[in-house]
């Protein structure tokens, strides 16, 4: 379903404190099925957001104003600004043999861009996800290609390979896993990875980040898998174990906000996608949750 509620005037007071590059993005704020019949309240960019069911529609508002709303991938998307176009497309999601597995909402005391960047990072696999996504001494990240694709305004990394002891719940033993990363918006990324049960296709894992405050967010991971054997509960548990391991690292990372100026953090060859992502954010003027944006209390 595309746009369902689109009457909106920009919240002028926010535009004075939050960059337009951020305000004009679409943001995931929750799973459709999780909305209470009595309505819900959440937060986006320091602003309270109200969600109310209106028949088959969901009305989203802030400060007494109706916000633009779209339903995509089983989630509610909204904006505090004036986004151009629809929520990005993930073509694989319409394939009828894929499993749709939403993995809940995870609150993370970290900046949204830090969460996205962590999702893109292969170097931490052996140390944070030991014996699942990586293992020692196999720690090398092979050279891969990272680029900003100007025609679609996205960041991509291709030719990524990593030997993984347990690449997916369906994997039987270690396999060399191939990855592609796609950053579709400053707060959303999609991972395509080798499917253990269908080598000619990709499993798809998306991460939609909801920045609540500069140093606080909710992460919404969702999987679109070629897997007809596992129980949903087992698939969700596998993914949540990985993300909760990440959360420990993210919540202890300093500085809290993502540096986007060169030389503040020393990159390595494995950081090519992170370098492209930071450059892209700076070019777009999308600096919420970065060292150039509003400051987090813990920063």
From TrEMBL:
EC number of the protein: 1.14.13.128
Protein name: Putative methylxanthine N7-demethylase NdmC
UniProt keyword list: Methyltransferase, Oxidoreductase, Transferase
Domain Vanillate O-demethylase oxygenase-like C-terminal catalytic: start-end pairs: 112-283
Pfam families: VanA_C
UniProt GO molecular function: methyltransferase activity; oxidoreductase activity
Keyword Oxidoreductase among UniProt keywords: yes
SUPFAM superfamilies attached to this UniProt entry: Bet v1-like (SSF55961)
InterPro entries: Cholesterol_7-desaturase (IPR050584), VanA_C_cat (IPR044043)
Tree of life domain: Bacteria
Enzyme class: oxidoreductase
GO BP of this protein: methylation
